[in-house]
Amino acid sequence: MIQGIDYAAILPPVLCAVAALVVLLADAFDVPRRWLGVLTCGFLTAALVATGVLAAGERRTTFCVPSGLRGTGPRSCSYVADDFALLFQGLVLAAAVIVVLLSLRTVDTDDLPAGEYHFLLLAAVTGALALVAARDLVTLVVALETLSLPVFALVGLRRRDDLAAEAALKLFLVSVVSTAVMLFGVSLLYGVTGAMHLDRLSAGLRTLPADLEPVASAGAVLVLAGFAFKVAAVPFHFWAPDVYQGAPLPVAAFLSVVSKAAGFAGLAIVVGFGMPSLGDVWGPVIAVLAAVTMTLGNLMALRQGTAIRLLAWSSVAQSGYMLAPLAVGERRLSEAVAATVAYVALYAVMNLGAFAVVVAVQRSGEEPVALDGFRGLARRDPLAGTALAFFLICLAGLPPGVMGLFAKVVVFRAAVAGDVTWLAVVMAANTVIGLYYYLAWAVRVFVPSDAPEEGTARPGFAVRAAIAATAAGAVVLSVAPQLVLSAAAAT
Amino acid sequence: MIFLLMMAIPACAALALLVPKARFLPDDASLGRFGILVSGATLLVGLSALTAFDFSRASRAQLAVDRVWEPSLDLRFHLGVDGISLPLVVLTALLTFLCLLYTYRHPPAGGRLRLFTALLLVLETGMLGTFTALDLILFFVFFEVVLIPMFAVILLWGGPGRRAAATKFILYTLLGSGLLLAGMLLVAVNAGTLDMTELARRHGAGVPHGVQVTGFLLMMLGFGVKAPMWPLHTWLPDAHTEAPTAGSVLLAGVLLKMGTYGLVRVAVPSAPDGARSCAAALGLLAVVGIVYGALACLAQTDLKRMIAYSSVGHMGFVLLGIATLTPVGVNAALFGNIAHGLITGLLFFLAGSVKDRYGTGDLARIGGGMLGTAPRLASFLTFAAVASLGLPGLAGFWGEMLALLGAYRPDAALSRPAFVTFMAVGGLGAVLTAAYFLRLLAKITHGRPRDSSDAAVLTAPTVYEYAAWVPLVALTLLVGLWPKTLLAVTSGPVRALFGGIG
User: Fold this and answer.
1) Are the C-beta atoms of residues A145 and A127 closer than 8 Å to each other?
2) Where are chain B's structural domains?
3) What is the pLDDT of residues A62-97, one digit of tens each?
4) Fewest Cβ atoms nearer than 10 Å: which of A219, B85, B141, B457?
5) How many other CB atoms are there within 10 angstroms of residue A379's CB atom?
6) Whole-number pLDDT of residue A150
């Protein structure tokens, strides 16, 4: 039986996959490395435009079960370009453009192989784009692996660097274990329902015989564990700080934003579309994961002395906030998913911004820049300094960083609406810890530096553009947070 | 619309101060005039709101702006005032204006007047927004707007221990706002609306008892940090002591009121069942605060620190008034709010002037005999101290007296013996308050100067100091002699709050 494919629907991931090959070939034909970055940016922008066009049109689906085989079941499409998927695709692509801008100088100074670097990046982006649109378990797992595999290589790309090699190995091992666990969970779910498509899985779980329920519950928890690794939730978090530190900075930014956003999208898809009826199983599990993740992340972030490790731990903590709404279980699930989506989108802007400034300040080949290295930044480089302070205040969730405040509000609201008030209280305590280290860092930016003023390396045009773009996004969203909130609520 | 304008003026002025120095207001003098002008204009708009307000219908939200902000999330941009918030709005505008007037000739040590002015104006926007917001989310946003500016004011222009004080201030208040957010949303989600007037109208109908108790408890803790309620007050003495004069005045005069205002405006009306369950605890913490504040004051050696601790005691009376859940008690609380804003604002201005002249706030080093060496300053200080200790005929008296009266006959659902005990202990606290203020006066205004050669260098108060003091003195007298001016405005809406006809 021949199946029609809606090529328009899958245009964004296809564009990225084509771009990956084009870049690899171009590198083989000795195209200057600068051009490879520009080429990557161009393709990503084209895919972004395609996403925008798709978002304006109607909902598209493809790879559906043919009507002859469907029986009485639902339509069961493996790839769905709905508002949810397109919002995440837009987010992933925009973030990827920023990451490529941040990479341009790092690729030069760290002497990374430009062709491979951009190829791997594009391959990972392809995986992320497919992941957020996937609606069956097999596609989800394959997309997740497409996202993960290139990242191991990206992390270890800095040759002759033990730290990078160790980080890559650590990431690889944790990832493989978590994938295995997840596959086991998938097989259990398939075993009890006989379905891979999420809509069938959901229907199957609702009519499950009572004696199979423990098996289904075990499957659900194991699948969660796989995503918990992806979003660096405790207890699958410990790779994050070492990997962030060992990887080239733009790759760390990619991990903490693109990879994490895709992970949360996958989690929301699985729990929201696939197993809402098991909410009383995964809800409490996620609640505990969220509480432990945010608390541990924040407490560890307090003790960090370097910018990159602080960002790593704080991004673990932020994962906790993003998980929190999903703790509600089946009740008010759509509201909870909207809250997580909104938080992820707002977090992407502010965290990328913070990473961009760290990239600007970090000198190649030196130790990771310490927090004290940011002293006097506002004087040396007013744009980067003020922007960093603003991003940090946003992450802490205080005005004038109104976007961060609203991110917090939607998450709190989803949590209390779903009757997990205790989690909201844990979150309240955590925002205070978070504020402490974010604020201490932001204050440093304005404190005059003790060390003699050294000529800072100019961050270069691309990095400046990245800072300016994220700062502009943060300001716009602080003035009009409803832009993201309403888009998220519509999913 | 009038409140939109009132907030837009300081907000736009603060933005205008971002223009590089060379282009706009190059010197401190013109900058100071700009600050006075802007806050004066805001005050004028506030006074015109006073004339536009229909006092015969004080229990309704008036002069409202109600726009849909984001329908999918039920966010509204809803501003308006009733008799409860109007006095606080005017107090905010007045105190900010006086602070900028005072700053014109007495800038805080540390320079950077431009940033200081901008921060005070942002602070004003946030405070006005808190008192006029009628949507919970909007209220929360404005509630948070004040944090960073006040943090920066303490951090950049504070005394020697400013770093710790500023950090403590912001961490404590943020913990409070986190709990507050959880509590407010918990009640709002269960009631199905974020609109504060609607929540108040329903009196918690449809919200289960357990949710109300949890929600009120969270809000009580959240507002209690700000108010401050013992034992969550420990940020306050440090912050007040280290902040520059204008910062202390606004902290004590307005920021603390955001806590008690929030209890009256949000917590009590939206979760009345919860309030009844927690009232005894609130009352207990309030009287502990009264006695603790008074005892701590007796032990202080620093003028500003003593005034700061006295705030703990005075706000204890306000909280006690709220805890009675009776119209008398809540009226007392609102009265006490305004009275404390006027009197403690004045006290901090005076403490700033004393510190300017003596170079220290240490009571022992100031020595005695101020009435001889600086008679006018000492007279004002005496006036403010006796007003603060609750002398009948001045503003401080009514709030405390009515709060104790309210405690004598609390809401029917509350334990009367407990509240009568609170009343007795609170009365003891009032006596202790008198004791420490009289001790203060005996120590520094009376007696002999420590060193007679100091007498010559003490300058007479400047015009700008008088300008900051006199309006507060006049209002303290006005409200003290004719308490009806204020009670008439608040009693209607307070009755409506408890289900009566406004």
Assistant:
1) yes
2) 2-497
3) 888 877 777 777 778 889 888 889 999 999 999 999
4) B457
5) 14
6) 92
